[in-house]
Design goal:
About 65% of the residues lie in helices and about 0% in strands. By secondary structure, it is an all-alpha fold. Helix 2 runs parallel beside helix 6, helix 4 crosses helix 11 and helix 9 packs across helix 11.
């Protein structure tokens, strides 16, 4: 019955995608009214790199929170061409690029599922990509990324493509460049290590060093200040306790009423997430499930980071695609996938933001503190169900012992 319903929907996949994009365009209105506040930070502050003032000049936003440039100097180098465009042109170009990256993210995830199932990425899979892109456009991390003009879709699509690239030089160097643009993709080295792609891990270091060198060439003063003075200052990035911060540190801080920093509650939570990640990676690597392994690594990175804004959780999209198309059909994994769809589709984070007096106030009533665990808790539950939800590798009996001596995950997309 489910397959029959899907086939009926897939017949209208191009129409579904067009209607979703059309509704989104109507909702946006004229480009002159698009806020895209984060893009404006990139666009307006990147040129300060040329005068060694990248981290000195902020962009006014609110009275208590001027917005600084928080990325490494290499990011400012890449944003310079964007800053040469008129503001309205820059907004339109970034929206189009982000939407293309959303489709690419969905297509890459489904390509991995199809390849692992021994199927060719044919018209049926292409139509699935259209339908899922149309739906993903309305989940909270994607909508906030687009509304803010954030870099997430561009960065995650590029990181994902690099991680699963067949050539180790391309994979590692690509991830290194992504980490030099914004530090969070550095967690992807864990994927190379657990899948024994050690040359890719080494190339990641080379790529990252390249971006640091480019930054020093562009502005030695700003590079020195970033790497030796500002690195690790989470409060400079934003309010740790705000509901939009969906990291373990943010959730624990709201629960306990103060910034827990790196004290024992945070260390305990990280230890729990590390154990769950370890079991998940052991199962996904043994099964050769590349998509599940990538998702497990990125979930761990989101939980571990001091700041994981809700729009950083775009990795939920390949997570749900894996749960629906790549995992075993069991009620735990389907329940977790459904929970992700409900939480991100209902935009619970916006409700929580509206309920807090200010972005800086950490203590809050316990119901709001409990709801503020939605992303971290679902992340932990996802890691917990992965070992039993991952499908057996080809040639391995379900729940049995591998029939081959090697079962490491192999990349399936170039």
């Amino acid at each position: 019955m489910v397959e029959r319903f899907e086939q009926r929907v897939l017949r209208f996949a191009p129409l579904v995608l067009c209607l979703s994009l059309g509704w989104y365009a109507w909702r946006l209105g004229a480009p002159t009214g698009w806020g895209m506040i984060d893009l404006k930070v990139y666009w307006s502050l990147a040129p300060n790199l040329l005068t060694d003032q990248l981290y000195t000049i902020d962009m006014p936003f609110t009275a208590d929170f001027p917005l600084p440039f928080t990325y490494p100097p290499f990011a400012a180098v890449l944003f310079l061409p964007l800053s040469w465009l008129p503001w309205v042109v820059a907004r339109v170009a970034w929206q189009v690029l982000s939407l293309v990256c959303l489709w690419w993210l969905v297509r890459t995830a489904l390509s991995l599922v199809a390849a692992r199932s021994g199927q060719r990425f044919d018209g049926t899979w292409s139509r699935r990509a259209m339908v899922w892109t149309a739906l993903a456009l309305w989940c909270e991390p994607v909508r906030k990324t687009l509304d803010f003009g954030q870099i997430n879709l561009v960065l995650i699509a590029g990181t994902f493509a690099a991680m699963v690239a067949a050539r180790q030089l391309v994979a590692g160097f690509g991830v290194g460049v992504a980490a030099g643009l914004k530090l969070t993709p550095a967690i992807s080295v864990l994927y190379f290590l657990v899948t024994r792609r050690f040359r890719a891990a080494l190339w990641t270091g080379v790529g990252f060093a390249f971006t640091v060198a480019v930054g020093f060439v562009a502005s030695a003063a700003d590079s020195w200040r970033y790497w030796f003075e500002l690195l690790g200052a989470a409060d400079r990035v934003g309010p740790v306790g705000s509901a939009i911060n969906q990291s373990l540190r943010g959730a624990l801080s709201r629960t306990l009423g103060h910034d827990v920093e790196m004290t024992w509650p945070w260390l305990l939570a990280v230890a729990v997430s590390a154990v769950l990640t370890g079991f998940a990676l052991r199962a996904t690597v043994r099964a050769g499930d590349t998509l599940a392994t990538v998702v497990a690594v990125q979930l761990f990175g989101l939980l571990l980071s001091p700041i994981s804004w809700s729009h950083h959780w775009v990795w939920v999209i390949p997570l749900v695609l894996w749960a629906v198309h790549g995992a075993r059909r069991s009620w735990p994994v389907l329940a977790v996938a459904a929970a992700w769809v409900v939480v991100t589709g209902a935009d619970l984070i916006t409700f929580l933001i509206d309920q807090q007096p200010t972005i800086w106030e950490i203590p809050r009533p316990w119901p709001l503190a409990a709801l503020g665990w939605c992303y971290p808790l679902l992340g932990l539950l996802t890691l917990a169900v992965m070992p039993t939800a991952v499908r057996a590798a080809p040639g391995e009996p379900v729940g049995g012992t591998p029939l081959t001596t090697t079962s490491k995950a192999e990349p399936s997309v170039t």
